[in-house]
């Protein structure tokens, strides 16, 4: 299991180098560690074996795959890429085991194309992640999808470094 | 060869007029093939008002690219009896505009205007125009329209209005302004995106997309009462509102049944029905002037292209081919052509396609040029562009010869759309 985690981390690091992906951590957006939370997401949780025996919600563990909350795409593509499938599947598993958690899937695009076409493309991206989460065990009632098209860019600038960060679906957990 | 020389000369000619009264500046590049020489004589009466009117009339006519302004050089007639026609013939003027402007006892501004034919020594048009205090620019636009109509035979559009979205950081404002970008009025301001404003054919309402409810939803707002109504708020995205020319129908794009598809409704949101059925993204519907067809953007063939389909259902026909992708189609007012955004080699440009020949021509050289819409007379096209790192408004004449950049006061101007003639 450790080997798998290491390789996923490596994969994330490699992806970060290749496309200037922002390093995402859950620390800022997730609620404080829930002591009584069930052991979640199986082996993905590394906090469960800590010396203090504290049970940590895997969602709040910055070392968990669940700390990744964004799925990235090539230009004008809405299908989840192979590199991001383990991330989406881990969230699907977590949601299936934590029925009270809900997420908003927020599709975004780079600025190439028209605003309206990109609104459609962002919706298709968010809907694609939603479908994959449902296939992985999440319930439809836990999920909503929206598109911001090219209206809420994370990075500014007319170049690939910015565009690659803006072609994105964010998995946004309700607090 | 002569044509090539003319266009080079046109490109070299860069006129800039920055008026101090507002933080807006306008640059004009190029000139029309045949420019009509006309003299605009500053009006008699109130000197300050006359000066303001003269600036508006002159810059309107220059922006069209169709006129060459003849310097009155100290000759300032205000009545036909004061005009010495040979003086103006010598200077090459074909027509001369004269008149007077005064403030009435009730505070209204009244201008009496005449356009005289220098060759035939006759009055082409005479009119008294009266507006409320502070609306002196409206007099200028009206006079420019009269001159334009008499000397070109086409409808003037200087008195029309435009709508666009201004983005400043996270703040979005829906703006209505005069056709030259002045006299900005804020229709809506918020910290969530606003997209795709679209005029009702009577000019009384705007339909637009707002994200204020957390996702894209379609609103219709009265410009008289400012009252607004949420007309499409289904799960997913609700967007791309477009009015039919009779004002009775609104086409919208919804994702409630899967991907982005086109629906028709009444402008109050009732009688909703789906009219496009594809597995792709179908968006940006635009009614033909006769209400029979819709142009729209679709990626059903693998990449975003412009298609046309009958409003009442039937097969869609692809209209754009070749390299690159195409977006945001809009019919010309006569229904004989359409403009659209073309993306090729990383550059966005504005293109025009003639329905009959199927030929497309690029009207702009390419850069960051998006979302074209025709002026009501079909002679100018308004679009979003970029210059000096900012989103700006721009126009190009429908023959591609004259371009104009309008820099708004601050922020990025986007999603412009030309309003109807009232």
Give an overview of the whole structure.
The complex is a heterodimer of chains A (175) and B (422). Chain A has a single domain, classed as 2-Layer Sandwich (60s Ribosomal Protein L30, Chain: A). The model of chain A is unreliable at 1-50 (pLDDT under 50). Chain A has 175 residues and is an alpha+beta fold. Chain A has 4 helices and 4 strands; from the N terminus they run H-E-H-E-H-E-H-E. Chain A has helices at residues 2-19, 85-97, 115-135, 160-166; strands at 70-72, 103-108, 143-149, 168-173. In chain A, strands 1-4-2-3 form a 4-stranded mixed beta sheet. By secondary structure, chain B is mainly beta. A 6-stranded antiparallel beta sheet of chain B has the order 1-2-31-30-29-28. The A-B interface holds A 76, 112-117, 119-124, 127, 144-149, 151-152, 158 and B 193, 195-196, 209, 211, 214-216, 235-237, 239-240, 253, 255, 258-260, 281, 283-284, 297, 299, 303-304, 325, 327-328, 341, 343, 368, 370-371, 414-415.
Q: What's the name of the CATH homologous superfamily of the largest domain in chain B?
A: TolB, C-terminal domain
**Strand coverage percent of chain B:** over 45%
- What Rg of chain B do the Cα atoms give? 23 Å
Low-pLDDT stretches of chain A: 1-50
| CATH classification class of the largest domain in chain B | Mainly Beta
CATH architecture of the largest domain in chain B: 6 Propeller
CATH-derived topology of chain A: 60s Ribosomal Protein L30, Chain: A
How many strands of chain A? Answer: 4
Number of helices of chain A: 4
């Amino acid at each position: 299991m450790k080997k798998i985690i290491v390789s996923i981390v490596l994969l994330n690091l490699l992806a970060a180098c290749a496309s200037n992906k922002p390093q995402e951590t859950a620390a800022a957006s997730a609620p404080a560690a829930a002591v009584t939370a069930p052991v979640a997401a199986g082996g993905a949780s590394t906090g469960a074996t800590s010396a203090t025996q504290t049970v940590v919600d895997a969602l709040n563990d910055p070392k968990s795959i669940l700390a990744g909350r964004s799925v990235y795409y090539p230009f004008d593509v809405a299908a989840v890429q192979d590199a991001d499938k383990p991330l989406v599947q881990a969230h699907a598993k977590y949601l299936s085991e934590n029925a009270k958690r809900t997420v908003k899937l927020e599709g975004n695009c780079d600025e190439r194309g028209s605003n309206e076409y990109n609104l459609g493309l962002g919706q298709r991206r968010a809907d694609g992640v939603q479908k994959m989460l449902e296939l992985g065990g999440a319930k439809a009632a836990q999920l909503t999808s929206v598109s911001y098209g090219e209206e809420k860019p994370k990075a500014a600038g007319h170049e690939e470094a910015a565009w690659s960060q803006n072609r994105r679906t964010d998995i946004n957990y309700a607090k | 060869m002569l044509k090539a020389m003319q266009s080079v000369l046109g490109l070299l000619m860069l006129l800039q007029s920055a008026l101090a009264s507002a933080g807006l500046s306008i640059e004009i590049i190029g000139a029309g093939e045949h420019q009509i020489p006309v003299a605009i004589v500053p009006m008699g009466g109130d000197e300050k008002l006359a000066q303001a009117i003269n600036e508006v009339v002159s810059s309107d006519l220059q922006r069209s690219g169709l006129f060459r302004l003849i310097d009155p050089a100290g000759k300032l007639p205000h009545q036909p009896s004061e005009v010495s026609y040979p003086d103006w013939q010598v200077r090459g003027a074909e027509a001369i505009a004269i008149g007077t402007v005064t403030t009435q006892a009730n505070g209204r501004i009244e201008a009496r205007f005449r356009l005289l034919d220098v060759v035939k020594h006759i009055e082409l048009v005479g009119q008294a125009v009266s507006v409320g205090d502070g609306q002196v620019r409206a007099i200028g636009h009206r006079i420019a329209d009269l001159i334009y109509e008499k000397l070109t035979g086409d409808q003037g559009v200087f008195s029309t209005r435009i709508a666009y979205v201004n983005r400043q950081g996270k703040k979005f404002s829906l703006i209505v302004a005069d056709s030259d970008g002045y006299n900005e009025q804020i229709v809506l301001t918020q910290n969530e995106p606003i997209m795709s404003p679209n005029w009702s054919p009577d000019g009384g309402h705007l339909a637009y997309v707002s994200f204020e409810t957390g996702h894209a939803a379609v609103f219709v707002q009265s410009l008289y009462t400012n009252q607004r109504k949420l007309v499409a708020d289904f799960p997913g995205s609700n967007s791309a509102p477009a009015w039919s020319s009779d004002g009775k129908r609104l086409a919208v794009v919804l994702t409630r049944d899967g991907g982005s598809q086109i629906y028709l409704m009444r402008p109050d949101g009732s009688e909703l029905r789906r009219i496009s059925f594809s597995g792709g993204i179908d968006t940006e519907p635009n009614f033909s002037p006769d209400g029979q067809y819709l142009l729209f953007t679709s990626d059903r063939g693998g990449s975003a292209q412009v298609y046309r389909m009958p409003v009442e259902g039937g097969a869609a026909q692809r209209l754009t081919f070749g390299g690159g992708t195409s977006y945001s189609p809009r019919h010309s007012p006569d229904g004989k052509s359409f403009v659209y955004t073309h993306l090729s080699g990383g550059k966005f440009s504005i293109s025009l396609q003639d329905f009959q020949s199927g030929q497309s021509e690029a009207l702009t050289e390419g850069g960051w040029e998006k979302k074209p819409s025709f002026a009501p007379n079909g002679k100018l096209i308004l679009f979003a562009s970029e210059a000096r790192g900012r989103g700006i408004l721009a126009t190009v004449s429908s023959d591609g010869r004259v371009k104009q950049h309008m820099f708004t006061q601050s922020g990025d101007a986007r999603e412009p759309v030309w309003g109807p003639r009232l």
